[in-house]
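Thread: "does anyone have the structure for this chain?"

Original post by V.I.:
We have the sequence but no experimental structure in hand. Need at least a predicted one for the grant figures.
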Amino acid sequence: MKIEDENIGIITADIIDSTEIEYDLRTVLFSKFNDGLERIKKTIPIEYEWYRGDAFQVKVLNFRDSLKIILLIKFWVKSFEKESKKSYDVRISLGIGKNEWNQNQIVTSDGEAYRISGRNLDNLKSLKQSFIIDANDANSDAFRIESLLLNVIIDSITPIQSKVLFYKICGYKEEAIAKKINLAQSTINQHSNAGNWFAISKYLDYFEKKYAHE
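Reply from O.Q.:
Generated one for you, tokens below.
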């Protein structure tokens, strides 16, 4: 056990309508969801743990990467199509604050970031949104309102657009994405534009600049 007072980002998330996923598919899909977390972990320092079967927490060691991480998680999960052609999705909450009580397991640790993240995830279940950002600082009100706007953009994004945006956030150029998913570069560009990449990339820059000097 270790007591700390540095800012961290804590993400709490659960898979929406997970109980409606057929039992035979559940193990395969959860493995694919977990593969996304492992891919992210290879490029950005994070720790994560699953709990309750369909929920997980992520500790973002550099909290300035927190928005990037939750968007990567969102787009990874939404990139898998259901038979209905609708995407899977996660309810996801980011809290930024102090890491006051650091134990060996994320789910038993505590602090401002944990409480903000967990409380807001519970509140999301009664709201018409699946995505929220909050912080224990002067940015809190702005982040919560901006989350509503991001939620509208993200909810309308298709599985193929989600896949393109995932790779864009990872830093891939459109030509490289085209090769990875076997589509023409012009098609990748169309999906990028339709997925509002311009607005999302601007918000990523904005978020990082908010904490540039901390």
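V.I.: this helps a lot. The two ends are 25 Å apart (CA to CA).
O.Q.: and The beta strands are 7-15, 46-51, 55-60, 90-98, 131-135.
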